[in-house]
Amino acid sequence: MASLDDLDLETLDFGTVEPNEFARIVKGLSARRIAELMSGPQRRRVLDEVFGRMRTLFKPEAAGSRDALIRWRIAEGEEGGDVYETHIAGGACTVTPERTDRTPQLSLTMAAPDFLKLVSGNASGPTLFFTRKLKVKGDIRLAGGLTYFFDIPKA
């Protein structure tokens, strides 16, 4: 079997990859390959798929009656990147693929490879935070419990 580093990520249709398979792919890729993928033409497609699936992987019972806006900045270099917002309210998670003028309760900033590792269950939010790979602004308690609101795949 070929190494995952030999997988043609540029043509892989991430829309057809199940969450557990996605987690396995991320786990098997070198940091260099993840960085290459997330700096190439597939970046936005991968991010759109991940954020799009947040709606279906959301666990309303875990969030309870919480009403929170979370702003995610997936950095690309020092200044650039993509911004998504997730709004948890009324037992649902809605996603906006851009920054809005609303005030978030929590803002999270991290590099794309770290984001992919986090959302695929291959990295821990606290570890990323304490190693300064994840920047948190706002409600730190919300940040600490955020992973419990989603059915995060396991590799």
UniProtKB/TrEMBL annotation:
- Which InterPro entries does the protein's record reference? SCP2_sterol-bd_dom, SCP2_sterol-bd_dom_sf
Q: Which domain of life is it from?
A: Bacteria
Show where the SCP2 domain sits.
79-144
- What is the protein's name according to its record? SCP2 sterol-binding domain-containing protein
Organism, by scientific name, is Actinacidiphila polyblastidii
